[in-house]
Amino acid sequence: MPQELKMKIRGLYTDPNNFSEVPEGALRVADNVVIDKDSVVESRRGQTYYGTELSSSTINKLFQYKGSLILSYGSKMAYDSDNAGTWTDYSGTYSQPATGFKMRSIQANRNFYFLTSLGVQKLDSLTATPIDAGGVRALGGTATIGATGSGFMSTATQVAYRVLWGYKDGNDNLILGAPSQRMIVANGSGSPQDVTVAFQVPGTVSTSWFYQIYRSPESASVTSEPNDEMQLVYEDFPSAAEITAGAISVLDFTPDSLKQAFLYTSPSQEGIANANEQPPFCKDFTVYKGYTLFANTRTKQRLTLTLVAVGGSSGVVADSTVTIGGQVYTGKAANDFSLRQFAVVTGGTPAENIADTAINLVAAINQNASNTVLYAYYTSGYDDLPGRFLVEERDVGGTAYFALSSRGDAFNPTLPASGTSVSSSNDEAPNRVYISKFQQPESAPILSYIDAGSKNSPIRRIIALRDSAFVIKDDGIFRFIGEDSTSFRVTLADNTATIRAPDAAVAFNNQIMMMSDQGIVAVSDSGLSVLSRPIEGSLFELSSSEYPSFEDVSFGLSYESDRKYIFFTVTEKTDTHPTQAFVFNSFTTSWTRWPMSRSCGFVNPVDNKLYLGHATNSFVYRERKTFTKRDYADEQEPVTISSASGLDITVASAAGIVVGQSIGQGASESKITAIVGNVLTVATLQSWSAAAAFIFMPITNTVKWLPMDAGNAGVLKQYRELTLFFRDAAFREIDVKFDSNFSRNVETIQLSPVQQGAWGAFPWGTVVWGGGLGGEQGIRTYVVLDKQRASWLNLAIVNKQAFTSFSLTGVSLFIETMSERFF
User: Fold this and answer.
1) Maximum Cα interatomic distance, the chain, rounded to a whole number of Å
2) What secondary structure letter does DSSP report for 507?
3) Pair (263, 371) in one structural domain
4) 312 and 388: one domain?
5) How sure is the predictor about 713, in pLDDT bands with cuts at 50, 70 and 90?
6) What domain range is 96 assigned to?
7) Are 389 and 537 part of one and the same domain?
8) Same domain for 226 and 181?
9) What is the number of domains present in the chain?
10) Angle at 313 between CA 308 and CA 315, to 5 degrees
C-alpha cells in the first residue's frame, strides 16, 4: 500500500507554490509552537503576569539594570523595587527622543544610560534619580594679584588659570567636565605676589562635586602671554553657601615646586580640542570596542560672537547695550551683575580692553539671576585673537535665541539693533556619529565625530557587533570600523536594502536582524542575506501602506540562548499595536508564529527569561520556564474555592471564567468542562481545599500542513489511515482536523495518547505505577470518511489545554491510488 511519510517539519511557508516549491514538512499554520530541534515541532512556553499592574499607560520599553527591571510607560520611568514586580516611579518625566525613535539604553562603567527628549540620562544606582550624563563646563572668572609684596608669582610675569568641575558617581567613576576659559593675571607690582582666583559656580553642581584650579607656568615678561600647560594648584568641594552665592574666591599661594598633575587639556596631554563635552542629544547609541557611539545627533543651541572694538566711534562704550536671549546687558564703568551691568575696560592695550570687556560681559550673562537658560564662555585661547565668546543653552532642546546691540559694529558678526538676523543655531546632523573617549561614555569631544552618507538620510539605527558597528540609514548600511579614535572610519556595506520598522533591528548571533524592504535580513561583516523568503508574502503585505502602524509599532528581540529572533508586528490593517510574532530559529532556519498582543520585550540576562509588555493592558509578562508541565499555560487569575465535591468545585465568583480553562491549586490541576453559576465541573478527580487557587489560560497550539498530495495533485487517491509520531505526547487529548479539495468543510476527531502507567496499557512492572502524561509514541487513526477520497488532503492538529504539550516528529498517511482522473 503506498504511503506518504512526512518525517520532516520545516516551519511556515506562506508564499510559494504549495504543490511543487515547498520542502517536505512545510506548514501553512504554525501557531504558538516552536521548531527548536530539527524536524520537531513543539508547544511554546507560556507567559503570565509579572508583578502589579501599572497605570493605564502602555509599557513602551523594558530594560534591566543591576539585576532589576526598569521600564518606560507613558512619560514615566519606574523600577522593580523588590524583584517581584512592585513598580516605583522615578521622579520626573521621560519621553522617547523623537517621534519614530524609541527610548534605548546601554550599560557602561556599571552605569545605566538611556535616551530621552532631554538628551542622554544616567543612573548610577537603581534607586537614584536620573541626571544628565556628563560633566559640566566650568564658568569663567577673574584672577588678581594681592598687595602683600610676597608670594609665588615673580614680578614682570603673567600666569593663566583654568577651573575644572568634577565628581565621582556612585560606581566610583570620575566624571570631569570641560575646563573654564583662561583667566590671566599680570604682576607688574615690582615684587612677588600671590593670586586670588574668583570664579562662578554653575547652577547644576552640588556639594558632592569638587572643583580644581590649574595654573600655567609664568610667562617670560609682563607683556607676554603664558602658555596653556596647566598644573593643579588647588582642589576643594564647594560649600552650600558658595553654591547659593554662585561664586567662589580662592587665594593661590602654591609655589611652582608643589604644583601637581597636568590638566588633561594641556597641549602635552589631550589638548583643549578634546575637552570633555557632555554627550550630544542623539536618537540612538551603542558601545563599540569601549567607545560609545552617539548617532543622529543634535548639539545645544550655540552662538559665537567676537567683540572687536572697545571705545572710539564704533566700539562698545559706557551705556552701550547688548541683548542676548531677551536679556539686556549694559556697559558701565564697573561691574554690577545684579543690575546686568558689565564693566567696559579702557585702561589697557586695545587687545587687553577687548579681552577684559568681553570677559565682563560673559560674567554678567552667567550671574544674571533672570537668566536660567544660557551660559556664556570666553573662548579665545592664549594664541588667539581676543574677544571671542560662546553663548550656549544649558539644556538640550531649546529654541533659537537672538543677539542685538546698540553698538553692533563692535561685534563680529555685526549685531543689529533689532530683529532676528543674528541667532543661535544647533548643529543638527542626522547622519553624524559622535565618538566618546575610550571607556568614558560621558565625554564626547565636540570635534570627535564621523559623518555617514548623505545628511538628507538620517541614521535610523546604530548597532555594534564584535568586529564592527553598523550604521543603518535609508541611503544604505554603513560599516563603522577601526580599533580606536585614530583609525575609526565608515564605509558603505550595502545599499540594496532599506530598513523598515527600526525598533525591530537587533543584534543576534553576531549579526543584525532587521526588517527591510527585502523582508527580514541578516546583516554581518560578510554581507546581507534574506531569511524571510518562506514568509515574505505575509511580510510584504503587512509592511505595505495598507497597514499604517506597521513601521512605528513593530519591534524585534533576540533570544540568544533559545536561538530565536522574534519579530512582533500587526495582523490587521486597523491594528495600532503588535498582535502577532514571527519566530525564527537560527539553527533550524524555521519560522513559526505566536498570536499575541505585546508592546515591547527583552530577554533578561539575570534569569534568561523573556519579559514582554502587554499592548492593551499595563502588565509586564514573564515567560514560564521551569522545564515542567507548568510551563504550558499563559495568564493566571486568582480565584477562591469555597467547597469541592467530586468533579464539582464551587468558587466565590465564576465571573470571567470560561470552559476550556484550567483550575489549579498546589499540585492539583484540571480542565474546566462545564460552568453552572459558581460551580465549575472539571475533567479529572483531584484533591481541592477551600482556599485560594488560580484559573489558567490554555495555549492553543495549531499545526497545519500544506496540502498533502503524495507527489501528484492531479491523481485521485484514497487517504485511509494516519499515524502521528510524537517524541513526547504530554497531552490528554488532541484535535485532528481534516479537509480536502473535494470536501472543504473541516471535520475534527479527538485522539488520546496511551498514558504512561495507565492500567492495562503496559506490561506489568515496566513503568511507574500511577499513570502520567507524555512519552514517545505513535497514535494511529482512520481518516474521516468524507475526506478519504481526494486529490489532496489538508491536515491540522490542535492542542488547547493548560499544562499539556506535545513534541511532534512527523506524520504518515497510507494512500491508495484510485484514478488518474482529477474529477
Assistant:
1) 121
2) E
3) no
4) yes
5) confident
6) 49-132
7) no
8) yes
9) 7
10) 25
Rounded CA-CA distance 335/365 in Å is 12
In a domain, 420, yes or no: no
Do 557 and 521 belong to one domain? yes
Q: Looking at the domain assignment, is residue 405 inside a domain?
A: yes
Q: Which of 121-133 are b and which e, b meaning 16 or more Cβ less than 10 Å from the residue's Cβ?
A: bbbbebeeebebb
**Helix residue ranges per DSSP H, 324-389:** 350-366
Whole-angstrom Cα distance, residue 332 to residue 342?
6
Question: What pLDDT, on the 0 to 100 scale, is given for residue 758?
Answer: 46
From 593, 623, 653, give the residue that closes a domain.
Answer: 623
Q: For residues 503 and 571, state if they share a domain.
A: yes
Q: Is residue 91 part of a domain?
A: yes
Cell of 739: 479537509
Strand partners, 682: 672
Residue type, 706: L
The backbone region for 509, taken as left when phi is positive above 0, alpha when psi lies in -120 to 50, beta otherwise, is left
Residue 397: burial class (beta carbons within 10 Å; 0-12, 13-18, 19+): middle
How far apart, in Å, are the Cα atoms of 68 and each of 81, 86, 88, 603, 666?
Answer: 8, 11, 12, 12, 28
Which amino acid, residue 538? S
CA dist 80 → 62, 65, 68, 88, 106 (Å): 11, 10, 6, 6, 18
Residue 419 lies in a domain: no
CB-based contacts of 388, cutoff 8 Å, min separation 6: 304, 305, 306, 307, 358, 378, 379, 380
Domain boundary residue, one of 495, 528, 548: 495
pLDDT band at 485 (very low <50, low <70, confident <90, very high): confident
Q: Prior bond to 413 cis, omega within 30?
A: yes
d(CA 624, CA 603) in angstroms, rounded, equals 13
The yes-or-no verdict on residue 756 having pLDDT over 60 is no
211: its cell numbers: 572643583
Q: What percent of the chain has pLDDT over 90?
A: 87
Pairwise CA distance, residues 198 & 186, whole Å: 15
Question: Same structural domain for residues 541 and 615?
Answer: yes
Same domain, 671 and 596: no
